[in-house]
Amino acid sequence: MSQFAAKIRVLVVDDSLLFRKKLELSLNEDPMITVIGSAADPLEARQKIAELRPDVLTLDVEMPHMNGIEFLKQLIPTNPLPVVVVSSLPLNALDALSAGAVDFVRKPQVNSPGDLQGFLHELRGKIKIARRAKVQSALVEPRSLRGAPEQRPPRQQAPLGGKGGKFVVCIGASTGGTEAIIQVVKDLPANTPGVLIVQHMPANFTNLYAQRLDKICQMSAKEAEDNDRVLTGRILVAAGDYHLTLRRDVLGYYIRSQKGEKVSGHCPSVDVMFHSAAEAAGSNCIGVILTGMGADGARGITQMRQAGAYTIGQNEETCVVYGMPMEAWRRGGIARQLPLRQIGPEIIFQLNRVTAAGG
To answer: Which residue, among 356, 358, 352, has the nearest Cα to 160 in the 3D structure?
Structure first.
């Protein structure tokens, strides 16, 4: 195979001619990427996809004729192409992930060279990740946050709340994780012990994601704030650019949400949360590592297992990117690998088992 043939073939879709040209010039500077074409709207993109057969699509959301979300809903079921969404609006990005996009990158601010260079660097990296991703149709129906407030589903109780204040569930994910997390937590009963989530996501996105969980799940959900208590029936989502750590005092568990240097390449870091859970909760914890590129969380979940926690990894077949769970499995940090749809029920089973045993 020639060097050119080995490059990732990218189609750029954006209604701004200037922005398309800027992306094309920048992406072509990367020796692993070549831009094979561009399109100004989804109608032109559909034609170019059929003609050029790109490996990865970069997609704007606000475009003429059809927005990017509707285009994704039509594209992914029949043509599961890896798509990286480029948008300045967090809500658009979350809707795009629900519709089947692999990842998203925030558009840079106008006239900000620093933002532009950071954006281009991030986009190149996510294109390379997307090329290796397994694309599938949306796992759950996206629930828009626009319009009238939705009613949370009726809260169901299960016999796992008796020791709720003693236990905690920690979940970490990256690429593909926003929808995978929803699959895991949406049916956890309202009296499930507190759940902590680290999903690699920038600031301003995590609060909207927590709101989305709050509408979908039987548990309540919110973006984590410093010194929040870990309560039965509550999900705390790590804030973008803040590490989340678990602490314990005489009243039970609480969290710290603090700025810090990147750990394992990320802030928030899954490793940071898992390490703190190993120290604060030990065997009174369940650790879950889901789809994602890289190794963030692998070291921490291994520490959790060594401290007596029950640990679960998403299996390769159902991961968008089998990176983080694979590395955790290789290190011996995973007690059991499961398909995504079985992880939520496994959490409930383990919590009920420990409660029944009087743990």
So the answer is: 352
* 154 lies in some domain: no
By the 10 Å C-beta count (0-12 exposed, 13-18 middle, 19+ buried), 18 is classed as exposed
- Single out the catalytic residue among 26, 87, 174, 276: 174
Q: The domain containing residue 191 runs over which residues?
A: 168-356
- Cβ count near 27 (within 10 Å): 20
For residues 188 and 323, state if they share a domain.
Answer: yes
Tokens of 176: 């593909």
Pick the catalytic residue: 26, 200, 228, 243? 200
User: Which residues are CB-contacts of 99 (< 8 A; sequence separation ≥ 6)?
Assistant: 69, 72, 73, 76, 138, 142
Convert the pLDDT of each residue in 105-148 to its tens digit. 988 876 666 678 889 999 999 999 999 999 875 444 333 333 33
pLDDT surpasses 60 at 199: yes
Active site residue 95: no
Contact 212, 205 (CB under 8 A): no
Spatial contact of 344 and 183, defined as CB atoms under 8 Å apart = yes
Annotation marks residue 220 as catalytic: no
Helix (H, G, I), strand (E, B) or coil at 62: coil
Domains identified in the chain, total number: 2
pLDDT of residue 313: 98
351: CATH: 3.40.50.180
304 and 204 co-located in one domain? yes
Catalytic residue chosen out of the listed positions 14, 60, 271, 296: 296
**Residue 213 in tokens:** 């969980």
Rounded Cα gap, residues 171 and 238, in angstroms: 11
Q: Judge whether 325 lies within some domain.
A: yes
CA distance 307 to 99: 38
Q: Which residues pair with 13 in a beta bridge?
A: 39, 59
Residues 73-86 as b/e (b if ≥16 CB within 10 A, e otherwise) read bebbeeeebbbbbb
174 in active site = yes
pTM above 0.85, yes or no: yes
